[in-house]
Amino acid sequence: MDGENKFEIYQENGKTAVNAYCEVPELKLEDFKAFEFAIKNRYWYQMFIDDLPIWGVVGEIDQNELFLYTHMKFDIGYNGHRIVDVNMTTEGKTALKQGDKIAFSYEVNWKPSTIKYEDRFDKYLDANFFQHRIHWFSIFNSFMMVIFLVGLVSMILMRTLRKDYARYAKDEEEMDMDRELGDEYGWKQVHGDVFRTPAHLLVFSSVLGTGYQLLVVTIAVILFTILGELYTERGSLLSTAIFVYAATSPINGYFGASIYSQSGGKKWIQQMLASVFLLPFVVCGTAFFINFIAIYYHASRAIPFGSMVAVTCIVLFIVLPLTLVGTVLGRNLAGQADHPCRVNAVPRPIPEKKWFMEPLVIVALGGILPFGSIFIEMYFIFTSFWAYKIYYVYGFMLLVFLILLVVTVCVTIVCTYFLLNAEDYRWQWTSFFAAASTSGYVYMYSIYYFLFKTKMYGLFQTTFYFGHMALFSLGLGIMCGTVGYIGSSYFVRKIYSTVKID
């Protein structure tokens, strides 16, 4: 349709006026088919008045005839000088026929209201959905899983350390006999290789640095949202996330550089640049691809060019310098290796082991329990994002997130123990991917959700959905992988520092 759409909404002595805002002199075939498609597929639209959302349908089918709603009636409640309530009804039921003249109009009714400004979002919060008993049950289920896993890890630690202390408490003669009988087995055999530099060190340290930063950003944004109710203002959550991400850039540089230096890395400038651009490159590349398709389809979801430039400037002029500061601090303050065991000059050959002890199997199984702890919460988050509900139970989210971290650490420690017990010292990447595989299960669940819970179709909707889900899963995977590595690193250092190595 040609023409400029404007809604001039203002209070005028309580009067109600009908205003025309758009007119189609003659409904062309192209416009007729667009309206026909929207009505038959029950399209609806969303608008905002003072950040309060309102929804309306394009039209309806009555007795096999298409009708278009051409009039919108806004009922706006005010308390003092603040808008506290907005409702819209669609009227003007007009038969849709090619070649007809169609005029669109609207009217505004102002009504005083007793709703407080800080309570104006309450009617949009679906308490029956988000505070359902199944939500509480999922929290309880996850909490019981945490208790079980913490007990399991504690049992493994106590068993191995007690066994080691008992073995080294024997006299020298018995120790020699044990060695001749082959009592030296399992994870102690790889003490000379367990702290060997992992493969692709530059990428590994950059990913871990990004994971540390994402962990801090996630916790900070959830806390800010709980305290400041950021969900009540459009775009405030995303703006806060971008600000916190930029401000916490030194965390990325510090931990990435310290891990890189401790492992003997020398190309610290390349490592820093990889840490800076790793996540922004993937996020911006995916966003630009989706944006290209959105522009092709003339969708309102297209990101303005100015916003793209602003994000690029934030990365270049804020994130990059702050990451450099963190990198310098990390190299100088925490860049010295302090391993409890020496690293042998020649790598020890990895013996054959059973199929379920292979790193790929451990990685595939490592994400099942962490995903199980957040499975129900994923449904609520997906529904709020893709079904346009306002997610407001961020206390639930924080609790589930903390449970996820504990479960991830416990599962990864168990996976690392089994791997080392099979005399395979490649635990760094294995622990990372075993924890990060949780995101793979989340992405598979998003495929199920797309097929059975949404009605999306077409190139743009499919790309928009799976592109955003890929970014969400990537961020979750990097975070979980980092947390898994942190737990496994502490576990490995602990067991090798308490055992006497000849």
Structural account:
It is a single chain. Helix content is 59%, strand content 13%. By secondary structure, it is of the alpha+beta class. The strands form two sheets. Strands 1, 4, 5, 6 and 7 form a five-stranded mixed β-sheet that branches. Helix 5 crosses helix 14, helix 10 crosses helix 13 and helix 11 runs antiparallel to helix 12.
Give short descriptive properties of this protein.
single chain, 502 residues, two-stranded antiparallel sheet, alpha+beta, five-stranded mixed sheet, 7 strands, disordered N terminus
Helix content: 55-70%
Span from first to last CA? 83 Å
Number of strands: 7
The ordered string of helix (H) and strand (E) elements is EHEEEEEEHHHHHHHHHHHHH
Outline, from the CA principal axes?
elongated
Rounded mean pLDDT is: 85
Radius of gyration: 29 Å
Helix tally equals 14
The largest β sheet comes out as: 5 strands, mixed
Return the structural class. alpha+beta
Percent of residues in beta strands: 5-15%
Instruction: Indicate the low-confidence ranges by residue numbers.
Output: 1-5, 177-183
